[in-house]
Structure formats: C-alpha cells, structure tokens
Design the sequence.
C-alpha cells in the first residue's frame, strides 16, 4: 500500500497551490522581515537597522495604532462573543420567528464593509442622523459619534459588532445544536431552571465554537482596516488609527520601510497573542 | 398557560428589538435611495413624497463616464477567475493533505494554519507583483485573492476528503488509474458539494473585498465595485440618495447568492470554523 500511497497521492498535487501560496503570501511575509529594516523606495534600499521599529513604536501618531488595535480587537471580540452566544442560546429555543430573526441578524454580513460604513456614517450624523434624532426624541443629547476624539473608535467598534455578530451567532448555533438533548433532560429532572441550563450545559459545552469565535473575531479585529478607513480615516487627528490604517497611510506617503515595519509588528502581535491564545483555548476544551 | 404567554411577550420584544437594530438601518438605506438629494439630506426614515429610484439608479450608473458598469465587469471577472484558481489549487492540496501522513504533511499543515492568522504583508506583495509585471493587473489581484483564500478552502477540502472512503482509491488503483486519473475522474467529481460551498462563500467575500483591490489594483481603469463606491463618497459630496442607490445596486449579486444559498453559506462557514 505504501507504494500506491506515494504513487496515488503524489506531492506534485501541491505544486500549483505552492506556487500561488508561496509567491503571493509566504514570500512577501519573509521579505517583510528584511525590508522592515531598510529605507526602501521599491527600486532601491539602504539598511537602517531597527530605526523603522523605533519610529513606529515611539512616534505618538504611529504608536497610538498599537494601543487602538488592541482595544479594537479585544472589544469587538468580547462583544461578539457575549452577544453572539446569548443570541444563539435564545434562538435555539422554541420560537416561531426563529428563522426570521436568524436571517435578519446574519444579513449585514453579505453587505460590503464599505456599504455598512457609509450607512452608519449617515446614521451617526451628529445633528440630523437617525440615532441622535431618536435619542433627542427621548430627551437625550447624543454624542458626536465619529467627530468626538473620545468616541470615534468606540463608535466604529459598535458598527463592527453590528456587522459581525451574525457570524458569531451562526457558529454558536452550530455548536449548541450539537449538544445532545439528554443533558438538558437530566437537568430538568433535577429541577434546574433555564439559567441553570445555560450556565451548566450550554455554556461549557459550546466551548469549541466559543474558541472559534474568539480566534476569528480577535484576528479579524487586529487586522481590521476597511471599516475604520471608510468611517473615520483614523481621525479625528490620529485618535482612531489602527495598525492597519497606519500601514496604509505610510504606504501612501511612500514610507515603504515604515509601512512594512508595521506589518512585522502585526505579525508579532498575532504570533505572540493569537497562537498561545489558541493553545490555551483548545486545552480547556470539553469533549462531548 | 401563563408561562406560554410570558414566552410570547418575550418573543414579541425580541422581534421588535431585531427590527429596530437591524431592520431600521436597512430600510433607512432602502427608502433614502429613492429620494431627491435635498430630501435625503434630512436623513429621515419617513417615506419619500415621490420616489425616484430609476432616476437615481440612472444617475449613479452614468457617473464618471459609466464607471460602475466597468467596475461590475471587472469585479465579475476577478471573482470568477479567483474562484477558478482557488478551487483548482485547494482541491488538489486538500486531497493529498488528507490522504498522506508524516512530517512533511505536518509542516504543510502548519504553513496553511499560519495563513489563517498571519496578516499579509502589503508592500512586499506590491514589490513582488511589480517585479513579475502583475502589479495593477487583474491577474495579479486574482492570484493574491486565491492565495489568501487558499488556507480556509484547503482545510474545507481536507475535512470533506475524510468522508470519501479510501476503498475507492484502491479500487481505482487496481483498475490501473494513476493519481492524476483518480483525482480528476473520481475524487474531484465527488467533492462537488464542498466545491460549491467554497465557490459561494468566497465569491461573496471577493466581490465585497475592498482592501486587496485598494492595495494591488489602483487606477481608474481597474476599479472594482467596492472601490467605485468608496470613490463616489467624495464625488457625491454627501448626496446620500446616490450613495445609497449605489449600495443597493452593488448589493444585488451577494443578495441573490444569499437568497438561493443561505443554507450552504451557513453550513460551510460553521464547518470551517468548528472543525479546525
């Protein structure tokens, strides 16, 4: 059989994938380590050591992206996990409008990020926007969602959660539906309440879908670029800049070395945070 | 009985909340896309006195010398070609990835998993594309999109291969098939369900993609629908009716996919997320 294994499942099958994947993903990643240490004009480079990283991490207009990206990733991830889980648990109960609710919550995912960003730029207009108009009708003076330096990042985080919570919910629903019903029957016989079911069965046993949601949302958040770019362009000032928006600004400015250093910083954040996170999460996973 | 009623109340509240949080923003776009610019500037959700959807659509399509039509064509070509490349490379990879074991395979698995997490390096990719003459070229973007979607898609194929019995391979081997025959004549046709799922999910993603066309395909000639929408923000200077009309137009293709393939989208996404 070993003979037929090597003959049937030849490594040649990897060649087309390897060409595309190495050339357009792996090679640029390795090149980024080198070019992040240079002053680079695309046609020419000169070596500067760790200067780009020093600039990236000390320049106030640049290192704000570092903090903002961590805030953005943690906040969107946390909110998606909490709301996604609660929505999924609720939408796995016996409801007549279950299908409708799942569909409408999932729907924003098929809209493009740019469309969603434009939509909420209008809804979040400080004076006439629908959100503040509604708040005003209730006697509340709404904030300047995107114009206030203390609010802008937070507002975009809310929009990100609005768009992405449907995916989290869908993954949780798949996880919850895989939980055998006899666990619930057992807790009912023991006289447990709906809260007990949620706390002692649904929550611990949807661990593996929770891990997927946390990883997807965190990594998506740390690399996020398009929503912030269409809604605030990192503004006002630099207050809502993310690492990815800074990478793009440096690219536009022709500072290719600094831009690439930003990419390398992102690489290390993902490797240093996401990989151990993945290890930790999968270790505490419960088998059904 | 009482319990049932409180449950009903609960459900009514839930539906009202969902309509408020998700229905209102969507219907806001829908109604304002059919207003005049002055009317849309009031940013109200009230229906228009007189709707003018057709006039707005016509104006959006004619903007910047029928840019949107060219963008639709570009996006369609890019999406279709990327899916073709992606299905080709990832089905072959997924096939061998599931069938073989050993150190080499573990390494390849590791590289693929890394691709799910590591963000692509922007400027080095531009530099590489430039040096092989594919920067600002549709094919350059096609390969980048296929390469970036490859990890997810290869893992889905690998998962699906597990359900295809090895006895089939052995039988084909006895019948004198080599690996290539086996893959083309037996395995690939059997993987049709997962191929369809991947094609649907990634085509929505690539059609809606803004970031990669922005990086790797700049220039008016090459505009995709999402780049066009983004550029129209400054062209239209807060004429929200036209921006929303554009949003409606470019959301039609994903919407059609969503209506027809809702189940497949959900199953593919959860298979990808829960399994890995």
Sequence:
């Amino acid at each position: 059989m070993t003979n037929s294994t090597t003959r049937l499942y030849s490594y040649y099958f990897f060649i087309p994938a390897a060409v595309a994947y190495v050339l357009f993903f792996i090679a640029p990643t390795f090149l980024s380590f080198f070019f992040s240490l240079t002053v680079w004009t695309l046609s020419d480079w000169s070596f500067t050591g760790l200067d780009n990283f020093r600039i990236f991490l000390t320049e106030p207009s640049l290192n704000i992206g570092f903090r903002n990206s961590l805030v953005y990733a943690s906040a969107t991830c946390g909110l998606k996990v909490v709301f996604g889980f609660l929505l999924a648990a609720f939408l796995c109960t016996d409801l007549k409008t279950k299908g409708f609710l799942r569909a409408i919550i999932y729907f924003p995912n098929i809209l493009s990020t740019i469309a969603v960003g434009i939509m909420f730029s209008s809804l979040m207009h400080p004076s006439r926007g629908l959100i503040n108009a509604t708040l005003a009708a209730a006697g509340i003076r709404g904030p300047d969602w995107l114009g206030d330096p203390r609010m802008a990042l937070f507002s975009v985080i809310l929009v990100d959660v609005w768009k992405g919570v449907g995916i989290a919910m869908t993954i949780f629903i798949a996880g919850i539906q895989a939980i055998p019903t006899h666990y619930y029957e057992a807790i009912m016989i023991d006289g447990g309440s709906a809260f007990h079911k949620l706390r002692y069965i649904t929550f611990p046993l949807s661990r593996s879908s929770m891990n997927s949601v946390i990883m997807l949302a965190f990594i998506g958040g740390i690399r996020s670029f398009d929503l912030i770019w269409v809604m605030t362009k990192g503004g006002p000032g630099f207050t809502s800049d993310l690492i990815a928006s800074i990478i793009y600004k440096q690219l536009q400015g022709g500072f290719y070395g600094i831009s690439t250093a930003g990419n390398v910083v992102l690489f290390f954040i993902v490797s240093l945070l996401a990989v151990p996170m993945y290890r930790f999460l999968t270790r505490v996973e419960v088998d059904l | 009985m009482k319990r049932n009623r409180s449950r009903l109340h609960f459900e009514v509240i839930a539906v009202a909340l969902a309509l408020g949080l998700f229905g209102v923003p969507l219907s806001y776009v829908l109604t304002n896309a059919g207003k005049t610019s002055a009317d849309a500037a009031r940013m109200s959700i009230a229906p228009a006195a007189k709707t003018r959807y057709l006039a707005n659509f016509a104006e959006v399509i004619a903007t910047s010398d029928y840019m949107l039509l060219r963008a639709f064509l570009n996006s369609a070509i890019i999406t279709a070609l990327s899916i073709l490349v992606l299905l080709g490379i990832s089905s072959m990879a997924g096939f061998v990835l599931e069938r073989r074991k050993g150190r080499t395979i573990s390494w390849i698995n590791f590289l693929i998993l890394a691709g799910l997490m590591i963000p692509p390096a922007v400027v080095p990719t531009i530099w590489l594309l430039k040096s092989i003459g594919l920067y600002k070229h549709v094919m350059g973007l096609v390969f980048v999109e296929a390469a970036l979607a490859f990890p997810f898609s290869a893992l889905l194929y690998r998962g699906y291969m597990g359900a295809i019995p090895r006895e089939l391979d052995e039988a084909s081997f006895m019948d004198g098939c080599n690996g290539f025959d086996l893959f083309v004549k037996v395995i690939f046709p059997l993987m049709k369900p997962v191929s369809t799922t991947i094609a649907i999910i990634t085509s929505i993603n690539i059609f809606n993609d803004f970031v990669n066309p922005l990086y790797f395909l700049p220039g008016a000639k090459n505009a995709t629908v999402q780049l066009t929408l983004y550029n129209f923000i400054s062209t239209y200077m807060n004429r929200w009716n036209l921006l929303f009309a554009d949003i409606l137009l470019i959301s039609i293709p994903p919407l059609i996919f969503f209506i027809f393939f809702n189940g497949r989208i959900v199953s593919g996404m959860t298979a990808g997320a829960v399994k890995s």
Remarks:
- Chain B has a mean pLDDT of 89.
- Chain B touches chain A through 90 residues (CB under 8 Å).
